[in-house]
Amino acid sequence: MLTAAALRCLNGEILARLVVSKPEHQERLAKMGIKDGKRIYKTEDLAPGKKIIFACTGVTEGNMLRGVSILRGREIRTQSLDPHS
């Protein structure tokens, strides 16, 4: 759901499906009220709502955010992103 929320804020898309590999998993789904174990969930199914906020801060270098930088021995700099839908 966290990934789906981030993708909704960034106009992305994700599809997901539950993987049932053991009979006890199927029983657990039934107890949770999930009838179709093969249903494909879309982004809006995983992160419903009209106003979604997602916040993240880079720890290591990546394509979207810089990692934590230590400057002059005492100053720490981070880069954050807080998109919303």
Structural write-up:
The protein is an alpha+beta fold and 85 residues long. The chain contains three helices and six strands; from the N terminus they run H-E-H-E-H-E-E-E-E. The mean pLDDT is 91.
Fold blueprint:
Layout: H1 2-9, E1 16-17, H2 23-31, E2 40-41, H3 43-46, E3 56-57, E4 69-71, E5 75-77, E6 80-81
Antiparallel strand pairs: 1-2, 3-6, 4-5
The level of helicity is 10-25%
Tell me the span between the first and last alpha carbons: 15 Å
Radius of gyration of CA atoms, rounded to a whole number: 19 Å
Q: Could you report the average pLDDT, rounded to the nearest whole number?
A: 91
Physical arrangement of strands within the biggest beta sheet: 1-2
Number of helices: 3
Number of strands: 6
Global morphology: elongated
- Largest sheet report: 2 strands, antiparallel
Please state the structural category. alpha+beta
Order of helices and strands: HEHEHEEEE
Note poorly predicted spans.
Answer: none
Strand coverage percent: 15-25%
